[in-house]
Write a structure and sequence with these properties.
Layout: E1 19-24, E2 30-35, H1 43-53, E3 62-66, E4 71-78, E5 81-88, H2 93-115, H3 122-127, H4 139-148, H5 155-163, E6 172-175, H6 176-241
Parallel strand pairs: 3-6
Antiparallel strand pairs: 1-2, 1-5, 3-4, 4-5
Helix pairs in contact: 2-4
């Protein structure tokens, strides 16, 4: 058996954006996804990412989230679109968000090419998209941009960081399991709230029906007697006139 080693210069970087998603923040619909060439990320991590994308409506606009093992998810949401990437925990946080900002700017240009310029409401267009991976061709631009951030110590990456002084000290840091559990709890609360609202409407209808029945029992007999008396008087009046 031969043991094949990576040729020097072709070894995968441990710091690059391993997986990048662009998704609709409303429901997590993935518009484009790109993975690194070596595909070293487990399916469990990718599944976590997709679960996370579906819970963004409960989350802040920017956040860093601890994934499985030595990985971190960083994301930012702007105009109804989420830009999220998976990095090694050791990758500089400022540089990760600078990368996401670059992807955001490139995607804005892609939206202009797709839907036109001028007074176009891109958010409305995105909300009407029904198919996943609608912008799948955009993954080539993400791949090109990733190459610029592959080595966080390179002069090119540092110059980008200086040009994009993203303030990240106040960005929240969350735990993935806490978020997923919180989402389950919120969904449970939502189901219970819906059931409670239905029970409340049913109770209101029953209360109205019982109230009507009580009124009939209380005033029904006197009302009937009164109507009979009025009818007799009415008939006597007309018989007297005739």
């Amino acid at each position: 058996w031969l043991k094949i080693s990576n040729v020097e210069g072709q070894r995968p970087s441990l710091n690059m954006a391993h997986v990048t998603f662009i998704a609709r923040s409303l429901d997590g619909l993935i518009l484009v996804e790109t993975c690194d060439d070596f595909n070293r990320i487990s399916n469990q991590l990718k599944q976590q990412a997709k679960q996370l994308l579906k819970k963004l409506h409960h989350m802040p606009a920017q956040c860093s989230i601890e994934g499985i093992g030595e990985y971190m998810f960083h994301y930012t949401i702007c105009d109804g679109v989420c830009y999220m990437s998976l990095f090694d925990k050791g990758y500089p946080k400022n540089l990760a968000f600078a990368f996401l900002e670059d992807i955001h700017k490139l995607f804005q240009e892609e939206l202009k090419r797709e839907f036109g310029t001028g007074s176009v409401d891109y958010r409305s267009h995105i909300e009407t998209i029904e198919n996943q991976y609608y912008f799948i061709k955009f993954d080539r631009q993400i791949t090109k941009k990733k190459a610029e951030y592959r080595d966080p110590t390179s002069s090119k990456a540092l110059s980008k960081l200086n040009a994009n002084l993203t303030e990240v000290s106040n960005i929240m840091r969350e735990n993935m399991q806490d978020i997923l559990q919180r989402g389950e709890n919120l969904e449970t609360v939502g189901r219970k709230a819906g059931a409670l609202a239905g029970a409340s409407r049913s109770f209101a209808k029953t209360t109205k029906m019982l109230s009507f029945q009580t009124m009939v029992q209380k005033y029904g007999v006197p009302l009937v007697i009164g109507l009979v008396v009025l009818l007799i008087l009415f008939l006597k009046f007309f018989s007297w006139k005739s």
